[in-house]
Amino acid sequence: MVLPSGSRVEEYVMASERRSIDQRLEQARAKLHQLEAQAATRKKKTADRQKIIVGATVINAMEADAELKGRVIALLNQYVTRPLDRAAVAQWLSRT
After folding, report:
1. Measured at the alpha carbon of residue 54, what is the angle toward residues 77 and 65, in degrees to the nearest 5?
2. Distance of alpha carbon 25 from alpha carbon 29, whole angstroms
3. Could you tell me the CA-to-CA distances from 14 to 8, 10, 22, 28 in Å, in that order?
4. Which of 8, 65, 95, 96 stands 20 to 30 A from 23 (CA)?
5. What residue ranges of the chain have pLDDT lower than 50?
6. What angle do CA 71, 73, 77 make, to 5 degrees?
């Protein structure tokens, strides 16, 4: 490989270093993106698990507490508006 002479050598070295730095920066950005995606996935899994636990607890409590059952059914009727979602909780909407 033939290197340029004089100031061209400095320019060549600087350009090479710049490419190396740009490459490392891009790798660091990709790693950051990957870590952010993993953190978001963990956060969503935790939130989903919390919802499942709270939901199961409320459903179980509804069996023993008629007042709670009535309040939950009222909330379901008020906030669950999408037909697909209403179908998923239809067994609770039909109970009084």
Report:
1. 65
2. 6
3. 10, 6, 12, 21
4. 8
5. none
6. 115
Nearest CA among 84, 67, 85 for reference residue 76: 85
pLDDT value, residue 29: 98
* CA–CA gap between residue 55 and residue 50 (Å, rounded): 8
Q: Could you tell me if 87 and 61 are in contact, meaning their C-beta atoms sit under 8 angstroms apart?
A: no
CA 15, distance to chain mean position in Å, is 39
CA distance 29 to 21: 12
What are the CA-CA distances from residue 80 to residues 11, 22, 77 (Å)?
65, 50, 6
Cβ-in-10-Å burial (0-12, 13-18, 19+) of 83 comes to exposed
DSSP E strand boundaries for 1-96: none
What are the percentages of helix, strand and coil residues in the chain, rounded to 5?
85, 0, 15
Determine if the pTM surpasses 0.70: no
